[in-house]
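Form P-L/3: holo structure prediction, ligand manganese (II) ion.
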Amino acid sequence: MKKPVVLVVMDGVGESSEALGNMVMQATTPTLDALKANDPFRTIKAHGTAVGLPSDDDMGNSEVGHNALGCGQVYSQGAKLVNESIEGGSIYASDTWKELVAGVKTSGGALHFIGLLSDGNVHSNIGHLLAMLKEAKAEGVSKARVHILLDGRDVPATSALEYVDQLENTIAELKDASFDVCIASGGGRMQITMDRYQANWSMVEKGWNIHVHGEGRAFASAKEAIETYRAEQPGVIDQDLPGFVIAENGTPVGAMKDGDSVILFNFRGDRALELSMAFDGDASFDKFDRGVMPKVLYAGMLEYDGDLHIPHKYLVNPPQIRHTLTELLVENGINEYACSETQKYGHVTYFWNGNRSEKFSEELETWQEVPSDVRSFDECPWMKGTEITDLVIEAIESGKYGFIRCNFPNGDMVGHTGNLYATEIAVETVDLCLTRIQKACDEHGCILVVTADHGNSDQMLEKNKKGVVSVRTAHSLRPVPFIIHDADERHEMDMESPFGLANVAPTVVELLGLKPYDCWEKSMLK
Ligand SMILES: O=C(O)[C@@H](CO)OP(=O)(O)O
Ligand SMILES: [Mn+2]
Ligand SMILES: [Mn+2]
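OUTPUT (holo model):
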């Protein structure tokens, strides 16, 4: 091995010369600016087909981004695998689908669908839900209930009613004497159900009571719930809308009963794991009180965790990510260190290692989590930047590690709030942290590599076709920076080839002086 490499992922910090709502450009970032000016620097693709998504209209996200960064290859991802499985019909030929459908046909119970209602293609796609509803009716299921999580984070911030209308239209087409179908409950994705990395189980508990027990504020329709909450909390965005239950004559229409089947139609794992644990967990489950558990058959769209086998039943096989960078380092006996705060901790560990929650080597891999604050991050845009930086510098100073990686969530997590001022501070925080990490790298003979997993803070405003400007809470489709800083020598890159996130691992391995796997993409070094 040559010198140690320290890789910094600035989550949600894309690169663009477009000024509109570009908080990366607007922020004061002396260290990033100097790195870009003085060291080998180029941009790399972080969205669409370059990271295994169905098309180049798909923005990047942390799952596909960290998968690609961590494995040096482009795998077809959940969004694409589920499309193919539905188009080709193999999802309906799966044992899980057959078992869940047979279950409700025998019991006369309901087939429930829970998931993120949008076409963001990050966690889910409404198209998958609509296709499964049609198929359920065609297969003779007599009752279905839909529990909708409102997005506004992967799609425009207040677009929930567009997706509710789409779903209600399909429901109106399908509903007849043989098929009783309706929306049963819902709420904003940052309020209920979709917590991740066990940052805030109370979100899942709220969602559980709403979806499973039908306990929550009651409305006659999803539209009425959304409109009422918007009137009560002017300016609220969809992801923050409180939970609701649909009731008829005071009775919730979709409380779950023994004999029902439940499908979580999200394909991405991080925000699907906790609800899956609650459904699959035996009597020892202690994250919250589930009340009287109805005996249901539960399945996820994918297996979200291949090590822990969560959930027990699933509809589509996840990508089998092999030959990761960590495996290569372990084979070479190199110690590695990974660090982030809770919100992105699984990104630099679980996603990075190909959606595995267990280490390849207990001895060689060190994972460090800094607990995240539980609050809206525009109130504390610095997040845990200082703590992550302290730990990374400690790891550098220890001299123990050949490869150190960390993720700063600020540009992304604050970007998703839609607060431009806070996002500027978020990007400045990351720059301040980089300043310290660069200094430690220079003093301890480490190569610093800086990149991102996708854009977000670089595009906080967007203009529609009519020229109307609105706040953007979603990721951008822009490329991300890739910088190699070594105080002792320049590592020149091929500046012409169209590289993407999957070219990062091979580049890191070449910097380390190791031999990459044959199946990997190319290194970017000249
Ligand atoms: O918050 C999330 O779940 C996604 C956006 O849906 O963001 P990221 O991919 O950056 O984790
Ligand atoms: Mn991300
Ligand atoms: Mn994000």
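COMMENT: The CA atoms of residues 24 and 458 lie 5 Å apart.
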